[in-house]
Design brief:
Blueprint: E1 4-10, E2 13-19, H1 25-32, E3 51-54, E4 57-60, E5 73-75, H2 88-96, H3 105-118, H4 124-130, H5 141-155, H6 184-189, E6 204-210, E7 216-222, H7 224-227, E8 232-236, E9 261-262, E10 268-274, H8 277-284, E11 288-293, H9 300-303, E12 319-327, H10 330-335, E13 339-347, E14 350-351, E15 359-364, E16 370-374, H11 379-389, E17 397-401, H12 417-427, E18 431-434, H13 437-443, E19 446-447, E20 450-458, E21 464-476, H14 482-492, E22 501-510, E23 516-517, H15 524-542, H16 546-553, H17 572-582, E24 622-624
Parallel strand pairs: 1-5, 6-18, 16-17, 19-23, 21-22
Antiparallel strand pairs: 1-2, 3-4, 3-5, 6-10, 7-9, 7-11, 8-10, 12-22, 13-20, 13-24, 14-19, 15-16, 15-18, 20-21
The protein binds FE2/S2 (inorganic) cluster (2 copies).
């Protein structure tokens, strides 16, 4: 492909460099000029992490062809703190704590700079509108808006420069004090290097061939044509694994690359390392894999039925993990109840969608130590698993945790680090892999989809006498964190309530879906969603206020949990009080709530109508009075 020459002014310097016509401006800035302040989050113009100025106008550089920079002036976030001194906006971000993982922050700073240039007096609503093209997945918007308002006021002289200074903290009194994040300056200036920003001399680029089938036997893999391609330095398959080929947080059931069988669409089958990403991608298309499709199962309850396709030979019933909890006598508890309510609740798979897609860099150092740099949330475990996979002693394996650009539990799994290590061993060169957004979505863990059937028996005055809770989760094709997720779902699912008779069962089930894994709240969310929804329904049936039914049953100081942990102090009642006050709750049973409220029904031009979600449950549950 013929090259083009780009003559532009980038961050105040004249640049004259060849570029490939297919390159985006983002590629040119990152790969050719080593300016990594602009990040790639989505690659599709949605998230704003790649924001730059072209002739003073804010653009998303991932959707701008490099040719558009010809003869133009381009500024990246690096230009804002060029002399090492942060801009007022960057200082305000630091002061306000407006950075969590930091991956969105360079783009946010650019968008905020554009907003202040367009209207130095913008109010909060206008600031929100002007930052609307940028996403923060860590949900840190409030602090970001606070930061922009602070910068605006300092810039306009409403506040002195000293408003940006660090708050004084009395010696040793850091708890509850406003202490600034140590890593914030590198986040707001774009200097912080995530794994995908790191480069090493002689570095190769890894790309992964993924399964198009949900369940199939691999009859053969022919990599010869790919290996013969110019620019290709190595091709690996499961045949290149010298040690124990299995990883997972609890059960080591996942091979680094599919071994004899694929179990979900997107599973890694082979990987190529080449001098550049384009060559590596081309080489993938030359690998010939012969599959023999097998019957697949995509629903956890179907996978539990006799005769369902078996995903792993070691688990013929497709059960990854079953966690039971037994306490008291539930049949007796139901018999003593005035009311028994049964309902089934479902939650869906959820994508983490952290802004930093998975990335890593591996190399063998001069002492023969395999070194992997990646945003791993579980590096000690990853290190031990990798040592077994590559058959090296643990002191010859090192993991370095790079900044995590959003994790939420999703980066607990060692999905791609094994491939990087194997390729570094094979090629004796540093190797880097940066996932695309699509690759991240197709191949990495989701929140476990669940179905929870809850049966609760209560007395007329709202006391819970018995609970039966059964949750079936789709764990997908591999175990990952399923065992721990099922455990947390079981232990915490019935909530902070005194329940004398309790029977809990949670099951994680293998299917041919994308593996499910850790996600914030780790299984407790699914079961507690069921329990809390159920309490609202029970309150409605008994004519009780939803807060009241919770107070009646709440654990108090000295309570014993369902798994017999003695609790010295329980803050739940204080939480309920605070939530009731903060929500401006209208007391009463759910049947009467919503329609009668006047305080949030300010309907008029420019005012959104009130949200009625959850204001009243329509139920068709089985409601039975006990004999
Ligand atoms: S908008 Fe460019 S990477 Fe998301
Ligand atoms: S701080 Fe915004 S995405 Fe993490």
């Amino acid at each position: 492909m013929p090259e083009i020459r780009i003559d532009a002014t980038v961050n105040g310097r004249k640049v004259s460099k060849p570029a490939k016509p297919h390159q985006r401006l983002l590629d040119f800035l990152r790969d050719d000029l080593n300016l990594t302040g602009a990040k790639e989050g989505c690659g599709a113009g949605e998230c704003g992490t790649c924001s730059v100025f072209i002739d003073g106008v804010l653009y998303k550089s991932c959707i701008v062809p490099v040719a558009k920079a010809q003869g133009r002036t381009v500024e990246t976030v690096e230009a804002l703190a060029k002399t090492g001194e942060l801009s007022i906006l960057q200082k305000a971000f630091h002061k306000s704590g407006a950075s969590q993982c930091g991956y969105c922050i360079p783009g946010m700073v650019m968008a905020a700079t554009a907003a202040m240039r367009a209207n130095p007096f913008a109010d909060r609503e206008e600031i929100k509108e002007r930052l609307g093209g940028n996403i923060c997945r860590c949900t840190g918007y409030q602090k970001i808006f606070d930061a922009v308002e602070l910068a605006r006021d300092v810039q306009n002289g409403t506040l002195p420069m000293s408003a940006l200074a660090e708050d004084q903290v009395d010696e040793g009194k850091y708890i509850g004090a406003n202490v600034r994040r140590l890593d914030a300056p590198s986040k707001v200036s774009g200097a912080l290097k995530y794994a995908g920003d790191m480069v090493m001399p002689g570095m190769l680029h890894l790309q992964v061939l993924r399964s198009p089938h949900p369940h199939a036997l691999i009859e053969s893999i022919d990599t010869s044509e790919a290996e013969a391609m110019e620019g290709v330095e190595g091709v690996i398959t499961c045949a290149d694994v010298p040690g124990e080929d299995g990883f997972g947080v609890f059960v080591h059931d996942q091979p680094v690359m599919a071994r004899g069988k694929v179990r979900y669409v997107g599973e890694a089958v082979a990987a190529v390392a080449a001098e550049d990403v384009v060559t590596a991608k081309r080489a993938l298309s030359k690998i010939k894999v012969v599959y023999k499709p097998l019957p697949a199962v995509f629903d956890a309850e179907s996978a539990m039925q006799p005769g369902a396709p078996v995903i792993h030979d070691y688990a013929s019933d497709n059960v990854t993990k079953h966690i039971p909890i037994r306490k008291g006598d539930i049949e007796q508890g139901f018999a003593e109840s005035d009311l028994v309510v049964e309902q089934t609740y479902a939650t869906q798979a959820i994508e983490h969608a952290y802004l930093e897609p998975e990335a890593g860099l591996a190399y063998v150092d001069p002492d023969g130590v395999m070194t992997v740099i990646s945003p791993s949330q579980n590096i000690t475990h990853h290190r031990h698993m990798l040592a077994k996979i590559i058959a090296r002693p643990i002191n010859k394996v090192r993991f370095i945790m790079s900044p995590v650009g959003g994790g939420f539990g999703g980066k607990e799994d060692m999905i791609y680090q094994g491939m990087l290590a194997l390729m570094a061993v094979k090629t004796r060169r540093p190797v880097r892999l940066v996932f695309t957004r699509e690759e991240s979505m197709i191949s990495t863990a989701k929140r476990h989809p669940s179905r929870t059937t809850l049966r609760m028996g209560l007395t007329r005055d709202g006391r819970i006498k018995a609970v039966s809770l059964k949750m079936i989760c789709d764990g997908g094709a591999y175990g990952l964190s399923t065992e721990g997720v099922m455990r947390k779902a079981a232990i915490l699912g019935a909530g902070p309530y005194n329940i004398p008779n309790l029977q809990v069962d949670t099951w994680g089930i293998y299917t041919n879906n994308t593996p499910s894994g850790a996600f914030r709240s780790f299984g407790a969310l699914q079961t507690q969603f069921a329990t809390e929804s159920h309490l609202d329904i029970c309150a409605e049936r008994l004519g009780l206020d939803p807060f009241e039914i919770r107070r009646i049953n709440a654990m108090r100081d000295g309570a014993q949990t369902h798994t017999r942990q003695q609790l010295k102090s329980v803050s739940y009642l204080r939480v309920l009080d605070a939530a009731e006050k903060a929500s401006n709750w209208e007391k009463g049973a759910p049947v009467s709530r919503g329609d009668s409220r006047t305080d949030f029904a300010r309907v008029g031009e420019g005012v959104r109508s009130p949200c009625s979600l959850g204001a009243r449950f329509e139920t068709n549950d089985k409601l039975e009075a006990a004999e």
